[in-house]
TrEMBL record:
Location relative to the cell: Cytoplasm
Descriptive protein name: Glutamate--tRNA ligase
GO terms for cellular component: cytosol
Assembly, per entry: Monomer.
Motif ('KMSKS' region): 239-243
Organism: Antarcticimicrobium sediminis
Keyword annotations of the record: Aminoacyl-tRNA synthetase, ATP-binding, Cytoplasm, Ligase, Nucleotide-binding, Protein biosynthesis
Listed GO biological process terms: glutamyl-tRNA aminoacylation
Start and end residues of each Aminoacyl-tRNA synthetase class I anticodon-binding domain: 329-464
Residue intervals of the Glutamyl/glutaminyl-tRNA synthetase class Ib catalytic domain: 4-306
Superkingdom of the source species: Bacteria
Organismal lineage: Bacteria, Pseudomonadati, Pseudomonadota, Alphaproteobacteria, Rhodobacterales
InterPro entries in the record: aa-tRNA-synth_I_cd-bd, aa-tRNA-synth_I_codon-bd_sub2, aa-tRNA-synth_I_CS, aa_tRNA-synth_I_cd-bd_sf, Glu-tRNA-ligase_bac/mito, Glu/Gln-tRNA-synth, Glu/Gln-tRNA-synth_Ib_cat-dom, GluQ/Sye
Amino acid sequence: MSDQVVTRFAPSPTGFLHIGGARTALFNWLYARGRGGKFLLRIEDTDRERSTPEATQAILQGLSWMGLDWDGDPISQFTRADRHAEVARQLLAEGKAYKCFSTQDEIAAFRESARAEGKSTQFRSPWRDADPATHPDLPSVIRIKAPQQGTTVIRDQVQGDVTIRNDQLDDMVLLRGDGTPVYMLAVVVDDHDMGVTHVIRGDDHLNNAARQMMIYDAMGWPVPVWAHIPLIHGPDGKKLSKRHGALGAQEYQAMGYPAAGMRNYLARLGWSHGDNEFFTDAQAKEWFDLSGIGKSPARFDLKKLESLCGQHIAVSDDAALRQELEAYLAAAGKPALTSTQGDALERAMFCLKDRAKTFPELIEKAHFALASRPVEPDEKAAKALATVSDGMLSELTPQLQNASWTRNDLEATLGAFAEDRGTKFGKLAGPLRAALAGRAVTPSVFDMMLVLGQDETLARLRDAAGRVGSN
């Protein structure tokens, strides 16, 4: 086995990339990327009835949105069926596997009789040690010769050593009667041929490891490092499912969660590094290790996800945030921003991103920058406008015409204006928010003025004064 770490993510294309799969992919990506290794992608599309090109596309898009880049082209398991069958025939030729001619009816009768006698119902084929000269000219499967004495130890980096008695292992079918390979064989051959050094996957595959080790041992291949990670549970402690509103990765994009926040949250779901909750990709790659993965299932918590997403939005680069927000709008099927709106949004990021946990929240707070004149006030804003006279807004315009449009000067001008009228600036702030944004909850009045610029600010105040005057 090479010194370079090679991990893989191997989804079945029968649906979208669910959140458990996204976390498995993330763990494999972090482990490889943090060690200068390779992260490979294999599409396990051997189930031809349920595998669809649309599902494959959805998985690739989900991984791309998550920012999990893979090395080389994705490998299709189905296209490698000849190679899988070749390994089964090699084991047959070496006497490590055998042809079994038992029919389904015979296997069922064996199990029924064993059940009646209180014995193990694990099928023991009468063909295991049969002389090939006695083989009938009938369809057969190829079964591996499982070890019958001793134990198999799965040395797992998360679960610890798991020991299985070999008399509990059956002579697993490798090649079906129609010559097609079974999934267990395909996985081992693919992992070996792809040079996979570490198999990091859900602990629902733990029992598979003992059966797959039979193939590694029979072929004389090195066994990869195993790491079987606990599944994700819902808030009620039961396995995460559609009942909990479990969604595909892309649906979280369409709901407006930033990818960096999603990566951070999923990394913390079942893995920890001290008390660190918030961390960057660079830190995650540096810190991630199999020893930090817990044995207990993690619980999916939407509030924690939102909190981390808010922290990532706050520290994001403005241009990158604009780009991701535009991708969110496309994913959510919402109208795209014009270039003017996009530029205004980017200018406004400094006063938006500290208070938004998701992109819909950020867009709502950015309403003042994205709206075009005349800005229609919503119900609350209209009430705020009704508390001032049109004269006050009209009188404010010449004062602002002479302001130098820096924050300090705007604060001084508006403060003095309020004082001259025997009121506090706070009383003036509500109507100004309504005039500039058409909303009652907005970023600070001064921040909005700086983003909009002098001409647009004055034009919106004139519009609002006209509206108040006509009421």
